[in-house]
């Protein structure tokens, strides 16, 4: 490999890691770490950032890392490379989630470049949506993109089923709010106004007083009694389109795949000016997750509950610098 080619590859792998850190993660924990060796990127789980109470098996941590993996693949494709990915390549190193080796490819098409442009634009929403509808064609596109990554995105069209999901979310939230240890874990990742931290949920990323949707989808209480939060659109009362992301099985590989599917869906939605809100409370309680699997998910394993909609509010976000997640950066 000549010096120019080596320099181009070095630029590409660093750009891919820069894109990866913009992936969504539970409570913005950013539980990933990267290493680079020549034309290969290694993605590892940062277990120090796993939610030991809320995510004891690391399922949500691996979904978060899967979303980061999708960003790596997309960024490389936008730079004219394809990715040869090996998921869980070494069974005796469980923290090593994937290796990504660069391979030359054709020039990226306009769709790839457009999708890549959404990486830093995407935001998580934590309130209701406006009554502006999400076009059916957009939902159909999101369903196809999830399928392309090996997962299933199912919009919940039945009003009764939507009420069930909302009720389970509220029940889980009420139970979790009474759990002191779980609440302390949440507080760890709730950033007060003016905080200089580059992880966790910033105070302007959720509304100070959210308008209730019908049916109501309970939100995490990051403020915990403080007058934190930003202003919100008081007319944003629609729950939006409720959907569940599922996988046939529930292995670590499928969790990583679910994360890749999730990020593909979110970026395609963002390109249509559609935002997503997440609700994982019920999925963090084994019996509620099993109820959803059996009663609403046709036996598949629910990995994420989402609402899609249109909002005029843009919440804040922040990410750690690449130097903190890339070995030797």
UniProtKB/TrEMBL annotation:
InterPro entries cross-referenced by the UniProt entry: Nitroreductase, Nitroreductase-like, Nitroreductase/BluB
Pfam families: Nitroreductase
Domain Nitroreductase: 119-309
Protein's name in the database: Nitroreductase family protein
């Amino acid at each position: 490999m000549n010096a120019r080619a080596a320099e181009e590859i070095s630029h590409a792998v660093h750009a891919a890691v820069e894109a990866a850190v913009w992936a969504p993660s539970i409570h913005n924990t950013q539980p990933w770490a990267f290493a680079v060796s020549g034309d290969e990127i290694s993605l590892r789980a940062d277990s120090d950032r796993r939610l030991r109470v809320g995510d004891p098996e690391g399922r949500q941590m691996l979904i978060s890392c899967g979303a980061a993996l999708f960003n790596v693949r997309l960024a490389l494709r936008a730079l004219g490379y394809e990715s040869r990915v090996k998921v869980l390549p070494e069974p005796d190193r469980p923290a090593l989630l994937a290796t990504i080796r660069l391979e030359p490819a054709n020039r990226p098409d306009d769709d790839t470049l457009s999708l890549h442009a959404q990486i830093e634009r995407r935001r998580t929403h934590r309130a209701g949506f406006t009554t502006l509808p999400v076009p059916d064609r957009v939902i159909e596109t999101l369903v196809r993109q999830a399928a392309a990554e090996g997962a299933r995105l199912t919009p919940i069209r039945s009003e009764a089923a939507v009420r069930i999901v909302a009720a389970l979310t509220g029940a889980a939230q009420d139970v979790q709010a009474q759990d002191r240890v779980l609440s302390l874990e949440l507080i760890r990742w709730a950033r007060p106004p003016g905080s200089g931290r580059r992880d966790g949920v910033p105070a302007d990323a959720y509304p100070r007083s959210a308008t209730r949707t019908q049916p109501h989808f309970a939100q995490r209480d990051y403020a915990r009694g403080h007058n934190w939060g930003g202003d919100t659109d008081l007319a944003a009362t629609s729950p939006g389109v409720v959907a569940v992301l599922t996988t046939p099985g529930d292995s670590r590989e499928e969790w990583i795949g679910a994360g890749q599917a999730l990020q593909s869906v979110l970026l395609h939605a963002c390109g249509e000016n559609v935002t997503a809100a997440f609700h994982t409370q019920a999925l963090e309680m084994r019996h509620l997750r099993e109820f959803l699997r059996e009663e609403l998910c046709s036996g598949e394993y629910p990995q994420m509950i989402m609402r899609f909609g249109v909002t005029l509010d843009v919440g804040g976000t922040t990410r750690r610098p690449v130097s903190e997640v890339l070995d030797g950066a």
